């Protein structure tokens, strides 16, 4: 299981203690990548930046290995940006659009956004 998690800063991450326990609880089958957008003195990092940086791994997990994607958060900008990056990862142009629609139709891409 791979989790990409983003929030404004590490000190407001309500789940940070839990994240550290998951690799042990899941027998090492858990990896988390965190993105923080408002850490003073540091460049903004968003989940979509991390996904882009892990393009090959993300494509393999979703397309080749049949992985599932859950996007949770702010619908207006975050969800759209993450979907745009995923679209480019799973295929080029219309192929990416078709693959994203197929993932949604098969319930392998779920959104819980507000």
UniProtKB/TrEMBL annotation:
It comes from the Eukaryota. One of its GO terms (molecular function) is NADPH-hemoprotein reductase activity. It comes from Saitozyma podzolica. Pfam families: NAD_binding_1 (PF00175). It is an enzyme of class 1 (oxidoreductase). Residues 1-83 form the Oxidoreductase FAD/NAD(P)-binding domain. This is NADPH--hemoprotein reductase. One of its GO terms (cellular component) is cytosol. Its EC number is 1.6.2.4. Keywords: Flavoprotein.
């Amino acid at each position: 299981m791979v989790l990409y998690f983003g929030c404004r800063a590490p000190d407001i991450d309500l789940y940070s203690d839990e994240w550290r326990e998951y690799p042990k609880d899941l027998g090492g089958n858990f990896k988390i990548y965190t993105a923080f957008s408002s850490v003073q003195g540091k460049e903004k990092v968003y989940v979509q930046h991390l996904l882009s940086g892990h393009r090959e791994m993300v494509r393999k997990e979703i397309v080749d290995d049949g992985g599932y994607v859950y996007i949770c958060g702010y619908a207006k900008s975050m969800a759209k940006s993450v979907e745009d990056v995923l679209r480019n990862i799973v295929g080029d142009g219309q192929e990416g659009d078709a693959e994203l629609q197929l993932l949604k139709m098969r319930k392998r891409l779920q959104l819980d956004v507000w």
